[in-house]
Amino acid sequence: MTEPNEPNLISIQDLKVYYRSGGGLFSAAKTVKAVDGVSLEIRKGETLGLVGESGCGKSTLGRAILRLTEPTAGKVIYNGRDLASLSGSEMREQRKHLQMIFQDPYASLNPRMTVANIIGEPLRTFGIANGSTDERVAELMETVGLNPRFARRYPHEFSGGQRQRVGIARALSVEPEFIVADEPISALDVSIQAQIMNLMQRLQAEKGLTYLFISHDLRAVRHLSDRVAVMYLGKIVEVADGKVIYDAPLMPYTQALVSAVPVPDPAIEATRERIVLAGDVPSPIDPPSGCHFHTRCQFAIPECSRVEPKLVEIKPRHFAACIRINAENPDIKANAAAGLGAVGI
Ligand SMILES: Nc1ncnc2c1ncn2[C@@H]1O[C@H](COP(=O)(O)OP(=O)(O)O)[C@@H](O)[C@H]1O
Ligand SMILES: [Mg+2]
What we know:
Elements: E1 8-21, E2 30-43, E3 47-51, H1 58-65, E4 73-78, E5 81-82, H2 88-94, E6 98-101, H3 115-125, H4 134-143, H5 160-172, E7 178-182, H6 190-207, E8 210-214, H7 218-224, E9 227-232, E10 235-241, H8 242-247, H9 252-259, H10 266-271, E11 312-315, E12 318-320, H11 332-337
Parallel strand pairs: 3-8, 3-9, 6-7, 7-8
Antiparallel strand pairs: 1-2, 1-4, 4-5, 9-10, 10-12, 11-12
Magnesium ion binds next to helix 1.
């Protein structure tokens, strides 16, 4: 866990990733605004959780930070340099410091390579190891809780949880400073999820790692994250400390996400107010005007379809993007009951 005023490790500034989609003989290509003007600070040593429904742009944002997907516009400042404007070879050099863990460890591991080769490959690629990597691979396997005796085995000989450990060992091999973990536990059995989360926490404490932890599972995010950013249709709509996002969210979208998480205690569960999110996430090809969420928001007023809300600090360290709330009137439900219209503009 980090102190509130840790310095930034990465500063994302107005980042955009637009994809060209479709387009053929009789139709024009459309623009998918997967990430549309994201600004975020990631502090040294913290875990920043990134949540939102499927299709909101979380993976694209994670990949764009590492330049695994090319940003369309904006900056990613790391160590005083803009990653988005580095040349290919300069970016390759930075990859040692910036690694990724993927959702499906099976799909992301080459099935024809032994685990030793998978974990050792980045060491050779970056010229970190000369000659044999056996010793270092054994050490990495031990670090992530794998028996080094299995180094000559292939990915299919491991369970899902073990494969994710292989993926983590591979990412750790180059001693990175920052790791984007994109849904690293979503494909795993519930019993295994906790083990991988504990491993990630232990590694963070031991190595001072900084994580961007992407997940649609709010419980996992809360467990692991110091701060949480909530994403909706390419934009960050709320940022706050993990506990605050979960216990006192300001945005109707976040409130709906939180209310969808089941509470283990049936007595509490019975008294809880559930906010149902109507429909799916609209297409990022032609997102709703104004606040993208207005089509699904029970508190939407006509202004919401006209005015694009800015992410502003409503309470200390708590940012939200909604024209119906501000620092004096942070409670949207109370504002709506009192007939307050657009107060944030
Ligand atoms: N390579 C691509 N080409 C075109 N559209 C894409 C591509 N990758 C993702 N998208 C679209 O961008 C949007 C965001 O996707 P993604 O970043 O995967 O969201 P998430 O990780 O939150 O589920 C989706 O509408 C998705 O269909
Ligand atoms: Mg994704």
